[in-house]
Amino acid sequence: MSDETSIxxxxxxxxxxxxxxxxxxRSIDFYTRLLGMKVMARRTDEVRNLKVGHVGYGERExxxxxxxxxxxxxxxxxxxxxGNGHIAIHVNDLYKLCAVLExxxxxxxxxxxxxxxxxxITAWIRDPDGHxxxxxxxxxxxxxx
Length: 145
Hints:
Blueprint: E1 16-21, H1 24-34, E2 38-45, E3 50-56, E4 65-71, E5 86-90, H2 94-103, E6 108-114, E7 121-126, E8 132-137
Parallel strand pairs: 1-4, 5-8
Antiparallel strand pairs: 2-3, 3-4, 6-7, 7-8
């Protein structure tokens, strides 16, 4: 019998993170065309006056996603305020991705560079609404036991 005051028997995984966007179609194009994500779901929420799209890598029920929210109606405006956080995305060839992004006119907050350990490579960009994205090629040397 499990202890109802403990989380020991529970399992967790990240389902999604939400970002406000000014133009859902523009944002979906950015994440799918330039970062290789797939549209996992789209809907209009009439009650909350939103258009919602989920993008990510894999099937929605099995993988975490980015939930993009576009406000509709009066007061929706043409822009959103980007927060102080960021989303990190791993990629197997960061230099190739950065060349594609540069060709697409994406400006870099930080071009690709090695971290202080000399192993990981990271670059920073912003999505169309100003949200920061950390692009990382993780260290892949075999783990030594």
